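Dear colleague,

Thank you for sharing your sequence with our group. We've completed the structure prediction you requested, and as agreed, I am returning the results in plain text so they can be pasted directly into your records. Please verify that the sequence below matches your submission; if there's any discrepancy, let me know and we will rerun it promptly.
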Amino acid sequence: MSIGQLGQIALPVGSADRSEKFYGHTLGLPKLYRFGNLVFFNCSGVRLMLEETRATVNPSAGVCHYFKVDRIGETVDELRSKGVVFEDEPHLIARMPDHELWMSFFKDPDGHLLALMEERRG
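Please find the predicted C-alpha cells below.
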C-alpha cells in the first residue's frame, strides 16, 4: 500500500457565495469550478473544497490551514488592504538549519483558522 500526496481538503462554510469571494477574490486562490454549493480552489495541486452547510459551522479547535508565501510581510500588507484582519504580525517561529520559519495567523468569514507561512532562506 502507498498513500500519496494529499489531494483535497474540505471545509464546511456558512455561505458558498461569501466564501467563494473571500478565498477567490480576497486571498487570490485560483478557482477550479463550482457545483451548486460546492466551490473548489487550487492550492498548488491540492484542491480546497468549500461546502455550504445548513448546520452551524464550528471551526475545529487545533485545526489550521497554512498557505506558503514567498514574502510574508508583503502578503500580509496586501491582504490587510483587502480587509483581512490578522491576529498577529509576521513573526519568527523557528530557526532551522537551512531556513527560518515565519508565520502570521488570520481567520476566514466562518472563523476557520488560517495562516501564512514563509520558509525564509539566506
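Summary note from our side: The two ends are 39 Å apart (CA to CA).

Kind regards,
the structure core
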